[in-house]
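ok so I'm stuck.
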Amino acid sequence: LLRLLCISLLPFIAAGQDFQCGTDKIQSDIAKTVVQFNCKDKVSEINKCCGSHDSCYDQQQPRGTCDATFCTCVAAASAGNPLCGFYTTIFCDTAKVFGEGAYKKAGEAKAKNGGAKKEEAAAAAAVAHAAPTAVAQPPPGAFTPV
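replied:
not stuck anymore, here's the structure
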């Protein structure tokens, strides 16, 4: 029975390694679970938004620009699904309120490594440039943190 349980969970554990939302494994696993259950067909899109946000921080673009682009991206990805939009609004607010530490850490890593390679910067800029621009709102009556 234990072997069957382990085998059935293996795809989720392996897939969790590729999910880019969150600043550590625990946050990433929580975010992925939330997205899988509430944004079923948008996991890949939302994950791309998180990856672009990470790249933006890594390049030390203005933090407000990175966060605004991320918020626009996840809102567009969740458009048409009010429950998903509710959670992506929380992701957005979390980045705005608690992202300073991750931004500073990315800046320290950039300084230590001598900056991002030109290819990485160009790829991240292309992804950020291609980010959707529509903004979704949480469903009426939904709790949204301040």
